Amino acid sequence: MRGIAGFVIACALMQAIPAVASEMKAVPAVEQQRSFAQPQIFRGQLGAKLIEMHLQPKKDEPESLEGYYLIGPDWKKKVLLAGEWSGAQISLEESENGTDVSGTLEAEWLADGLSGNWMPADETLKVTFRLQAVKKALPQKRKN
Predict the structure, then answer these.
(1) How many CB atoms are located within 10 Å of the residue 54 CB?
(2) What do you get for the CA distance between the two ends of the chain, in Å?
(3) pLDDT at 45
(4) Three-point CA angle 9, 12, 16, nearest 5°
(5) Which of the residues 6, 57, 103, 105 has the least number of beta carbons within 10 Å of its own beta carbon?
């Protein structure tokens, strides 16, 4: 009888292990969702361009994001961003005037930053980007 009971217990454990493993994979997404409780800064490459991206949740719309990115090396050109996020997926539209969409960014929030693709509004090009999460923004050069 113990042989059958042991076999039944082993089978039950084998069925439980995939469920536990899938729950463990979900934990980082929950942690990432909580990360947008505060504004986030990312820095890295969009194609050949250096950029610094600032994102924060929109007030009264926790699944929506707003922000901008600055283009180096002088960091004076500012591109506005607005979009949504769910789990580790981020979808943003960019605009230089706050109205006309000039491009889109689709990204995945990884453990150390963002990775994804940028496309212009006409979708004629796809440029990869990789941004690292940083704690502080670069000092901005002041106009005289």
Answers:
(1) 16
(2) 87
(3) 96
(4) 135
(5) 6
Burial 60-71 (b: 16+ CB within 10 A, else e): eeeeebbbbbbe
Query: Which pLDDT belongs to residue 61?
Result: 87
Q: Within 13 A of 123's CA, how many CA atoms are on the CB side?
A: 1
Position 114, amino acid:
L
CA–CA separation, 141 vs 74, rounded Å?
7
Q: How far is CA 19 from the centre of its chain?
A: 26
Q: Where are the beta strands (DSSP E) in the chain?
A: 40-46, 49-58, 61-71, 77-86, 89-95, 101-110, 113-120, 127-134
How many CB atoms are closer than 10 A to CB 115? 14
pTM: 0.72
Q: What residues contact 73, with CB distance under 8 A and at least 6 apart? A: 50
What phi, psi does 139 have (nearest 5°)? -65, 135
| Alpha-carbon gap, residue 72 to 92, rounded angstroms | 20
Note whether 56 and 45 are within 8 A (CB): no
